[in-house]
Automatic annotation (TrEMBL):
Tree of life domain: Bacteria
SUPFAM superfamilies attached to this UniProt entry: Ribonuclease H-like
Pfam families the UniProt entry points to: DDE_Tnp_1 (PF01609)
Domain Transposase IS4-like: 17-67
Gene Ontology MF annotations: DNA binding; transposase activity
InterPro entries, per the entry: RNaseH-like_sf (IPR012337), Transposase_11 (IPR002559)
Gene Ontology biological-process entries: DNA transposition
Protein name: Transposase IS4-like domain-containing protein
Length: 166
């Protein structure tokens, strides 16, 4: 596949029928996968999915499902803030997104209130939406800077960090 820079990119697939799967659609398919790939990155890097709190099968399952659950809750709860930020796009140079660090920290601090609190849920959701909108990040499309890669110190990189239990 020829990129905009003139560079040739090779995409490998097991779909061999050229009539059903023409070569031209693979760039679009690759771009639609990007959301899934970034979700894996969020789960692994930001939420430390690979760093389990226990060694039993049950504790690994609990860590896995709680991490996926928190990620899903974050996605649902930040929807209103994403809409409000996109409505403000006319005033800003770049499209603004909810800051994941802010949203996960906010949910971590308010998840018990959300499920077990006795206060009004609507008021809490409005408060969460306001907190999600603090310190948004800008989406700058078509950036072409080379990625700065840092070498990992060792193969046991993830084992040095203790998982923060919510």
């Amino acid at each position: 596949m020829l990129l905009e820079t003139g560079e040739v990119e090779v995409l490998v697939t097991s779909l061999c029928d050229e009539k059903l799967w023409p070569t031209e659609i693979f760039k679009e398919l690759y771009n639609t996968r990007w959301g899934v790939e970034t979700l894996y990155g969020t789960l692994k890097e930001r939420l430390n999915l690979e760093n389990f709190t226990g060694k039993t099968v049950e504790s690994v399952r609990q860590d896995f499902y709680s991490t996926v659950f928190i990620s899903g809750i974050e996605s649902v709860l930040t929807g209103e803030a994403r809409k409000k930020l996109s409505d403000k796009d006319d005033k800003n140079k770049y499209h603004q997104l909810v800051n994941k660090a802010v949203s996960f920290n906010t949910i971590k601090n308010h998840v018990t209130d959300l499920f077990f609190g006795e206060s009004d849920t609507e008021i809490l959701l409005e408060k969460l939406t306001r907190l999600f909108m603090t310190n948004p990040v800008c989406e700058r499309k078509n950036r072409k800077f080379p990625r700065k890669r840092r070498p990992r110190a060792s193969l046991n990189y993830h084992k040095r960090f203790k998982k923060i239990v919510f």
